[in-house]
Design a protein that fits this description.
Elements lengths: L1 H34 L5 H16 L3 H14 L2 H13 L6 H9 L6 H9 L8 H9 L12 H13 L4 H11 L3 H26 L1
Helix pairs in contact: 1-9, 2-3, 4-5, 5-6, 8-10, 9-10
Length: 205
Amino acid sequence: WKNVGLTIVEKVKAFVTQAGKVIIAISVLLWVLASYGPGQRQAQAEAQVQQQATAQRWAAAETERRVASARLETSYAGTFGHVIEPAIRPLGFDWKIGIALLTSFAAREVFVGTMSTIYSVGQDADLGTVQQKLASEKDVQGQPFFTPVRALSLLVFYVFAMQCMSTLAVTYRETKSWRWPLGQLVYMTGLAYAASLFVWQVWGS
């Protein structure tokens, strides 16, 4: 048992000191991208929300949620979502999903929290509230945006995509090279894109 204990301690130490550094670095980067934005766009967006809140007499909690949504939309992550929208539109995705794809690289479950923020749903809201917000979303034709086919396209993307920085960090630790983790990222993202594209183009468009 002593050898087992020493092996466990050694492996945990190796993970924390090697893979852990990569995970922390990526986590900080994602936080910065989602928290800050170019120029004064975030401040201007927040000021507009505050003006609307005053004019329409929103409750403090509602104002806070809408400010968070506006700040996320005008952050670097929000800008990234708008930039990649033309590339992900053939999959049935919009810029909002694009933001969630970026932030959920930390962990897939972050997708739900990001969408909750974008749609001004409080962090303490139950799943039913989030579902109601998504169900009320409309596309440019006025039709429901989150259709079963669009949801399937998104699910298929997440099945194949390498949306896990911990896995990439461990691969880097084991191989001592960025060649394999980057290869994983490119290959699996490409596979996810192709599979999602097939689903949306065949059944969704």
